[in-house]
């Protein structure tokens, strides 16, 4: 093989780490994406291979003999290029997930080489959902659930670094973790398998409940206190309405609190944007929404969240 070919082959391999398989290497494990495409190197580039048989589970699926393709059971979804020795297979299915062998014979019918390899088809990771809820003791539980994907591996970071012991209380499972009290920041869950990866991020604050994150579920203890982040700290929110079951319970407008139905048992701190509610009762358990408006009266953001008050 000349240096130019070697370089081309090298580039080819590095560009197709997931969708490329060198079947000439014994015991290769090759990964393909369900519905995707894989290129498999069967013969040497520009080689004068006399006979080559590629078998799936001991059945011939592709036979090359005397410079022609004699058999190609994948003909309707493959392209074989005789000058590169590569077969490209499209529309991969779980049925392709199997053990394969590759056998070479010379003119005299003698076997000159035999290799075994595996093709492993994985569904790509997709639609990663990252949810978190505040537990009544201030801990935060985060769960990461992709809707699709095989052989998944999870990893977590907070503000760009791996979770430390002072942040992570424990892992309930690889995709379900509990963070310590007062942990805050940008949490990222990354999910990968051999052929794909995806991540999802959320920002959350160190209070008990961040109402600005949609679908937050916040837990409070009966008779206890909860801190709820309504507005960003130090922000210049023009108008914000917090509704319980569609009725306004708190409204901020033009730098002042206009309505606070919880006035006798709450403290709102305008510089942090956090409202602290005391003496929680079971009737605080409800669905809430938080809406933001700009000066022109246009709604700029709306989120939904739930408050769940639990008895001791
Ligand atoms: C490929 O498609 C043709 C036409 O649909 C069909 O006759 C043939 O059996 C198919 N070949 C294989 C190997 O499935
Ligand atoms: C392969 O998939 C494409 C698009 O997903 C489809 O158009 C095509 O008919 C499929 N080919 C075979 C042989 O299944
Ligand atoms: C086979 O691959 C070579 C090198 O990549 C390319 O130049 C040639 O056009 C390909 N032939 C076919 C039939 O696709
Ligand atoms: C694919 O094959 C591997 C072993 O080679 C096996 O572990 C895996 O479960 C198979 N996947 C499917 C979807 O059958
Ligand atoms: C973070 O953890 C992963 C394994 O989960 C490890 O591969 C990586 O090196 C770690 N990064 C740092 C900066 O420690
Ligand atoms: C996460 O783990 C906790 C504790 O083991 C469990 O109660 C909870 O149901 C799990 N959540 C999900 C979404 O699996
Ligand atoms: C989290 O906050 C950072 C910095 O404030 C921002 O750039 C990013 O878009 C936020 N991410 C989400 C998912 O809200
Ligand atoms: C707060 O307490 C005062 C005095 O007891 C009462 O008049 C007022 O109606 C209470 N406000 C609310 C919103 O319950
Ligand atoms: C809240 O509870 C404390 C003690 O539990 C009590 O003294 C106080 O009167 C309660 N306040 C309201 C507004 O219910
Ligand atoms: C609001 O919170 C800030 C930061 O925690 C604190 O310094 C300030 O004293 C609080 N203001 C009120 C009125 O409680």
UniProtKB/TrEMBL annotation:
It comes from Mugilogobius chulae (yellowstripe goby). One of its GO terms (cellular component) is membrane. SUPFAM superfamilies: Immunoglobulin (SSF48726). Keywords: Glycoprotein, Membrane, Signal. Residues 1-19 form the signal peptide. PANTHER family: IMMUNOGLOBULIN V-SET DOMAIN-CONTAINING PROTEIN, SIGNALING LYMPHOCYTIC ACTIVATION MOLECULE. Residues 124-205 form the Ig-like domain. It is found in: Membrane. It comes from the Eukaryota. This is Ig-like domain-containing protein.
């Amino acid at each position: 093989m000349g240096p130019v070919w070697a370089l081309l082959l090298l580039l080819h391999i590095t560009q197709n780490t997931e969708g490329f398989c060198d079947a000439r290497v014994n015991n290769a494990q090759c990964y393909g994406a369900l519905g995707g495409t894989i290129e498999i190197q069967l013969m040497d580039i520009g080689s004068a291979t006399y006979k080559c048989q590629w078998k799936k589970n001991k059945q011939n699926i592709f036979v090359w003999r005397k410079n022609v393709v004699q058999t190609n059971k994948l003909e309707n979804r493959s392209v074989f290029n005789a000058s590169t020795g590569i077969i490209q297979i499209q529309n991969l299915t779980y049925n392709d997930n199997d053990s394969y062998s590759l056998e070479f014979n010379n003119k005299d019918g003698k076997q000159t080489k035999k290799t075994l390899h595996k093709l492993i088809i994985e569904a790509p990771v997709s639609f990663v959902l990252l949810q978190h809820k505040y537990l009544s003791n201030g801990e935060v539980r985060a769960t990461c659930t992709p809707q699709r994907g095989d052989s998944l591996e999870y990893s977590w970071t907070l503000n760009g670094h791996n979770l430390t012991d002072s942040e992570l209380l424990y892992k309930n499972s690889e995709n379900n973790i509990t963070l310590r009290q007062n942990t805050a920041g940008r949490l990222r869950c990354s999910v990968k398998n051999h052929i794909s990866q995806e991540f999802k991020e959320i920002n959350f604050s160190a209070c008990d409940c961040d109402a600005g994150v949609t679908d937050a579920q916040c837990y409070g203890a009966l008779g206890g206190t909860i801190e709820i982040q309504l507005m960003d700290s130090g922000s210049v929110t023009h108008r914000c309405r917090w509704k319980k079951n569609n009725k306004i319970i708190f409204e901020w407008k033009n730098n002042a609190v206009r309505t606070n139905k919880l006035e006798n048992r709450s403290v709102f701190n305008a510089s942090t944007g956090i409202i602290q509610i005391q003496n929680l009762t079971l009737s605080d358990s409800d669905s809430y929404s938080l809406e933001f408006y700009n000066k022109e009266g246009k709604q700029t953001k709306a989120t939904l969240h739930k408050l769940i008050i639990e008895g001791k």
